[in-house]
Structures are given as C-alpha cells and as structure tokens.
Design a protein that fits this description.
It is a single chain. With 196 residues, the chain is mainly β. It contains no helices and ten strands. The strands form three sheets. The chain has a four-stranded mixed beta sheet with strand order 4-3-6-5, with no helix packed on it.
Length: 196
Amino acid sequence: VAYGTEVVEPTATRTGYSLVGWGTTSDATIAVETETMPDNDVEYFAIWKINKHFAVWYANNGTNDTIKVDTLDFGAVIIAPSENPTRDNYAFMGWSATTDGTIISDFGTMPDQDTAFYAVWNINKHVANWYANDGTNDKVNVDTLDFGTVIMVPSENPTRENYKFIGWSATADGDTTSVFGTMPDKDTAFYAVWEN
C-alpha cells in the first residue's frame, strides 16, 4: 500500500466468532482506527469476540413451555438441566433435539446458532385386573393400558358352577356397573358379580 493511501480494513471471518476490529499487536483487545498508510510497514491483527447463543430446554407437553434457557459460548459443552421436568400421568424419558425425535444422551457442544432440546415423555401404563371373585379371586383377565384409555370388559364372561354371572363391580362385594371409565394413573381392579 502506498504511503498516504487510505488503509481499507479487509473482511475476515472465523466460525463461532465475531470480528471486533483490528489491533496492532497479536494480543490486542481494543481496536484501532485504520487511517492512512504511514511511511513504514505496519501489521494489523484481527480481534475476535466469541459468539454466544441460547440453548433452550422445552417441556414439550403440548404447550412447549420453556424449562430453562442457557446462554453459552460457541463450543461450550452443553449440559442438561440438573432437575428433570415432570408431567402428570407421564414418565420423563430424556431429551431430544426435535419435538418427536429419539432420545440423546450426548448434547455435544454449542453450535454457532441458538439450539433447542425437548423433553421426551412416555404415557404411564397400568394394569386393569379382572377377578373371578368366586372365593379364590383367580384373575380372569389382565389388561395393561395407557393412562386415559377407555376400559373395556373382557370379551368372554367368567363362569362359576351353580351361579349366574350378572356383571362386573369395582369392589369385591359391590353392585354391578356398566360404566368403567378410563384408565386412572394407577392399577385398578374389577370383580365378577354372581347370582345363585
């Protein structure tokens, strides 16, 4: 560059960093103004600032409520929240990089952009036990059902010598019921009702 000529700053890029300006030493932290070329050689060194981005952790329970937001440097190790989220009637399984993706255990390092992770849930399963209720309480049927699933009676009625089966009850000595509802968030039982 000729003496007295305006010094034009070049464009420089570095993944994960933003250019702050140019300094006259390799460890400079404050940029200098480049003006015109002096009557000697001169060196300029790029001054970089590491980029920061958001790692957002979502509950992913239909509302995508934010659980936690981390502001991390580019390249920083991403660490999951120390406390797992909770959701009624569901078990927390882990985290995914997509709302309906597979569970990951290694979250890697912070990319040069915001990133998000989503809780993965499994609906709770419980057992509906159907008892013969004939003095031995032998099980007639066992159904493993998701929470909230409609409970259906066994396709075949139980039999008992010298008794007529008249329906099912929610208690061993209760009246028959025709409404079984949906699976609660616990095991449940129904008992055959007999008439002799």
